[in-house]
Write a structure and sequence with these properties.
238 residues, alpha/beta, 6 strands, 13% strand
């Protein structure tokens, strides 16, 4: 940003702490740690379970695979804001726009898969606002209820159906959803296409490996929880 120094100075003056910029890999690790707090302790500590955490943000999407701690991570340059700005010009999304979004996500996943073995996942966890909002829709919530959303385990088919429904809605229909945050209305349709593309790719990869995933878990806990934990507790296994 052109005014990065102005922003950094304001943070220093108000909070008394300097701005720290972290790498995509560190962001992924912190999101992973936060996401696992949505699981029961026995599930989070089970070394036989390979968790694949997907943090779908506005400008990037992190994939992290591991058990109690990350084994592999990759940050993809795809996000709901980035791809909305790149591909979306009408309302609702056209078939061509959906295809363009899917193509970018598929290309990013091709690269990510060289660093993160998505076929090895035995548990899939989605975090951040796009995923939690789509989960609220899948659950048919009458308001945004974090307690109902956090830890929700949905059949993959139900999650994909919710994604498809939101991706086809007009802006007015999206804005009328009782759980929709106003700031998310203009990008959630793109986020739904991104999330469905990722979930389907992981489902196909695990099925081809002979251990198909049946459900996807949603976590309200993400990088902020991971940052807080990193300040008070060492990572698992250290």
């Amino acid at each position: 940003a052109a005014n990065r120094d102005e922003f950094a100075d304001a943070v220093q003056n108000i909070l008394g702490a300097p701005v720290e910029v972290i790498s995509g890999t560190e962001e992924a690790a912190l999101s992973y740690r936060g996401a696992l707090t949505a699981l029961a302790p026995a599930d989070a500590d089970d070394l036989s379970v390979r968790h694949l955490v997907v943090d779908l943000g506005g400008g990037s999407t992190e994939l992290v695979l591991g058990t109690q701690s990350p084994d592999a991570a990759f940050s993809m340059d795809v996000g709901c804001v980035r791809l909305t700005e790149r591909h979306v010009h009408g309302d609702p999304l056209s078939d061509g726009e959906i295809a363009s979004i899917r193509r970018d996500v598929a290309t990013a996943l091709d690269t990510a898969s060289t660093a993160v073995d998505i076929a090895a996942a035995t548990d899939l966890i989605g975090v951040a606002g796009t995923v939690t909002t789509i989960t609220a829709h899948a659950l048919r919530l009458s308001f945004y209820d974090p307690l109902a959303i956090n830890g929700a385990r949905l059949p993959i088919a139900d999650m994909l159906r919710a994604c498809d429904e939101i991706s086809r809605m007009t802006r007015s229909d999206r804005g009328a959803l009782p759980f929709m945050h106003p700031g998310r209305v203009d990008v959630i349709q793109t986020g739904a296409v991104i999330w469905s593309t990722i979930v389907q790719r992981i489902a196909d990869a695990t099925a081809a490996a002979g251990a198909p995933l049946a459900v996807v878990t949603t976590s309200e806990h993400d990088i902020l929880d991971g940052v807080a934990l990193s300040l008070v507790l060492p990572p698992a296994g250290t």
